[in-house]
Amino acid sequence: MRLLSLTAALLTVVAALPRARPLNRRGSEPLPPTVDPFYVPPANWLDAKPGDVLKWRTITPGFTQLNHMNVDKAYQILYRSNGINNDVPMTTVTTVLVPHNAHKNSLVLMMPYQDSNYIGCSPSYIIQQGAPIQNNSIQSLEQLLWTSVLNDGWIMSIPDHEGPNASFAVGPMAGRASLDAARATLNFDKLGLAQNSPIVGTGYSGGAIAAGWAAQLHSTYAKELNVAGWALGGTPSNMSELTYTLDGGLFSGFAVAGLAGVVNSYSIAQDYIGTVVTHAGNVAMQYTREHCMSDIVINLRNTHVLNKTFATTGSKLLLSDQITPLLNEISMARDKALTPIAPVYMYHALHDEVISFDSANATAHAWCANGAKVHLQSFFGLEMGHITTELLNTPNVLSFIRNRFANKDFGDCSFTSSPDPLWSPDILGAKLTEVFNAVMNFWGFAIGRGDATLKENIQQGKPV
Prior knowledge:
Layout: H1 2-15, E1 53-58, H2 62-66, E2 73-82, E3 89-98, E4 107-111, H3 123-126, H4 137-140, H5 143-151, E5 155-159, H6 171-187, E6 199-204, H7 206-221, E7 227-233, H8 239-246, H9 252-265, H10 267-276, H11 279-287, H12 293-299, H13 324-329, E8 344-349, H14 357-369, E9 374-379, H15 386-392, H16 394-405, E10 414-418, H17 425-428, H18 432-439, H19 452-459
Parallel strand pairs: 4-5, 4-6, 6-7, 7-8, 8-9, 9-10
Antiparallel strand pairs: 1-2, 2-3, 3-5
């Protein structure tokens, strides 16, 4: 009852705020990444090292002005990185937001959830003023944390961690892109950040794929980075289990998008899926390459991936020797050599209707067994769903970031559980109205008990 009352009170605050308007004025739209020359690397880019700055520009971020966020300057950096392994060079972009009175001794690496294989949904594009902003209340929720981080004065780097062609659920690539975004941000001389500046990385849901893999790859790929900690929420750590969990349900679009992302990035997956996928399956996967998350959730709901309408293999799609080893390889906590060396804070709803708690729990225990320091905080209240947890646990994530920058003791592995987060608005600061401007760009959205309203809207095909 305490959480339900609090949620109702917060939504009342939000409903009382003036509606924001999209900044997609005719004639002012930025160029999409497919035609914007900024995304094209210089001729000698292969000579650069991972994390080297290839290009940079200043931008005007639309949503930060819309929501009165504490942003003084905004930059975009095209940088060198690697893809699915160190032998697949690539470039991608990170957006750097610099608050007024910024601390020059710390960096927050923020991995947003794109959850789509469409390059037009990349953070670096949709963050620009004039970009076609979707009426997407789900993604606007993560801006609560963005606002809080900026209010604390931390520089924030937001990478296009799905890479230059946007491939969802490809953890090894997302992890490298994220670590190299940190390198590039430290290398960017306009910021004045020291190379040994402490870094805290965070991601929720699809963003936790990038954050989790960055945590795993840190020791072998970018050990020189002074990472103080990682925060992962609603973590999809196992692609196979994710597919089985979501298949045929309201959120099955994520399973389709994940499969399409793997096909986009791995030739072995492309060869196998190409021989068994049906026309309907191809159409569904292609949809995720041409639309953003909100449309994918709505229009691919109740899709049966493990059915002969999608692939001739039916329920055995993921059981072939041609695909199973790859899916194991891109799951977290499968290789002891890829164990996080910085503290990891994980949080997850026990009854998460999108991402199975069991997978995240298994990942946390495996990492602990291999010597990592992990705190997994679970919430067993029936009212705690995937989206509810993201919103209401924001203060705990912010506290983790603050504590890591303050070098407070994290302890060893621990597992705690409670009905819901102890929501403390004072952690976020006094400007609660401003905070909730960042929670929802477009109002008229209520989460509901256990994300009930959200699920009803999806089932009815309403925008989310």
